């Protein structure tokens, strides 16, 4: 079961990924974690990534896809995986599709958590206010200003993925504004048919 979860920051992807991991026993693959692990392990693609990162550059799509390609060969990912934070662009989605096809694999599901952006900003503002009220500092990436920037980046770079996967007939949507357990139930309803395919 190979899954991509889409949705803007704050949509609840992290929470739902954890529940999918628990339910189906497949790993959640974060590109940031995979990059760090590949660099630490000194794999060929990890060494290439390290050189780019040390020079202050951005790691190319080719390198990131190479790291994903290596990671999904590991035993825990043989039955499937959830991709977290990747692909971020249509170009990455195309490269991912080609890489999977070269291994005789394809995605099982692309699920978008649909959320109301104004409500998300409201949530972040409330969270920041509650944190301050407790006398604690608000994390930099939890401020409404930074959150709005992250939303804008998502809209320009990542939101086009919805149309890309919809054109391929692969996109399914779940209402991310529902209570967390209801979102989980709707996600599981989409994924259960693929679980049978994994088991067989």
What would you note in describing this structure?
The protein has 9 helices and 5 strands, in the order βαβαααβαβαααβα. α1 (13-24) runs parallel beside α9 (180-199), α3 (44-54) packs antiparallel against α4 and α6 runs antiparallel to α7. 59% of the residues lie in helices and 12% in strands. It is globular and about 50 Å long. It has a domain at 2-26 and 79-115 and 158-199: P-loop containing nucleotide triphosphate hydrolases (Rossmann fold), CATH 3.40.50. It is an alpha/beta fold. The mean pLDDT is 89.
Short characterization:
It is built from 9 helices and 5 strands, in the order E-H-E-H-H-H-E-H-E-H-H-H-E-H.
The helix/strand class is: alpha/beta
Distance from first to last alpha carbon: 11 Å
Largest sheet descriptor: 5 strands, parallel
* General form: globular
Strands of the widest sheet, in order across it, are 2-3-1-4-5
Low-confidence stretches: none
What is the string of helix and strand elements? EHEHHHEHEHHHEH
Q: Say what the CATH topology of the domain at 2-26 and 79-115 and 158-199 is.
A: Rossmann fold
Helical amount: 55-70%
Can you tell me the CATH superfamily of the domain at 2-26 and 79-115 and 158-199?
P-loop containing nucleotide triphosphate hydrolases
Classified by CATH, the class of the domain at 2-26 and 79-115 and 158-199 is Alpha Beta
Strand-residue fraction?
Answer: 5-15%
Number of helices: 9
Q: Please name the CATH architecture of the domain at 2-26 and 79-115 and 158-199.
A: 3-Layer(aba) Sandwich
Count of beta strands: 5
Radius of gyration: 18 Å
